[in-house]
Design a protein that fits this description.
By secondary structure, the chain is of the alpha/beta class. It contains 9 helices and 6 strands, in the order βαααααβαβαβαββα. Helices cover 47% and strands 11% of the residues. A 6-stranded parallel sheet has the order 3-2-1-4-5-6, with helices on both faces. It is elongated, with a radius of gyration of 18 Å.
């Protein structure tokens, strides 16, 4: 069946989120916590580990954090791991981290040319496990909304990839069937396995050169960057 709709993950698929987050955490820690007897790089690493653990274990039906509460909670947990329990400092670190990250977040160089090429040829949407407080400003800052028919923030619906329900919701928003739809993402379990569970095809953007899980159904295509996507979609269609 021809491909009429393409669904994209956001972080580390369209933008280099990991590097941006690491650098922002390191700078925030060096500015605000260097005088607290903890190595700033160690604190930044603790924050990244805490944040990655949160996102990796986010499950459907998990209650949405109170507005403005998520980042301070993650920083407070990172501080506690380094022997510091200071809610006020955690809040300052969260605010500074968010400000730095918003200034520095960047798309992969190939993202805009690819989205421009695909725009108008396919219906397109973003499906991300984010919340409004963590993702809306970032998406606006990058000017992405003009390319997409919908932006699905799974966390706002108390859903999370790889739950097939979030993929079904996205297809309903674009009024397309699973046979017409392709999911494009960098996380195998969240994006590829989740899309397959919803009946979609999937393209794995394997930016970290990972091996697929043993015994997993393979994606319909694997690419090293988003730059390779347009001809792959043509072949799938």
């Amino acid at each position: 069946m021809p491909v009429t709709a393409v669904f994209f993950d956001l972080d580390d698929t369209l933008l280099d989120d990991t590097i941006s987050s690491e650098r922002s955490a390191a700078l925030a820690a060096s500015e605000l916590a260097a005088d607290r007897g903890v190595d700033a790089d160690d604190l930044a690493t603790a924050y990244m580990e805490t944040a990655m653990d949160f996102w990796e274990h986010l499950k459907p039906k998990a209650p949405k954090p109170a507005p403005g509460a998520l980042r301070p909670a993650l920083w407070r947990k990172a501080l506690k791991a380094k022997g510091i329990d200071d809610p006020a400092l955690a809040k300052r670190l969260a605010q500074r981290y968010d400000a730095i990250r918003l200034e520095r977040v960047e798309l992969f160089p190939e993202t805009l040319p690819v989205l421009s090429q695909l725009h108008g040829r396919y219906k397109m949407a973003i499906i991300t496990n984010g919340f409004a407080e963590t993702h809306e400003e970032k998406i606006a800052r990058l000017g992405l909304k003009r390319f997409f028919d919908a932006v699905i923030l799974a966390g706002e619906m108390e859903l999370a990839k790889p739950d097939p329900e979030i993929f079904r919701h996205a297809m309903e928003r674009l009024n397309v069937t699973p046979g017409e739809s392709v999911m494009v993402g960098d996380r195998f379990e969240r994006d590829i396995t989740g899309a397959h569970a919803a009946g979609m095809r999937a393209v794995w953007v394997n930016v970290r050169h990972e091996r697929p899980p043993e015994g997993a159904r393979p994606p319909e295509a694997t690419i090293g960057s988003i730059a390779e996507l347009p001809p792959v979609l043509g072949r799938l269609g």
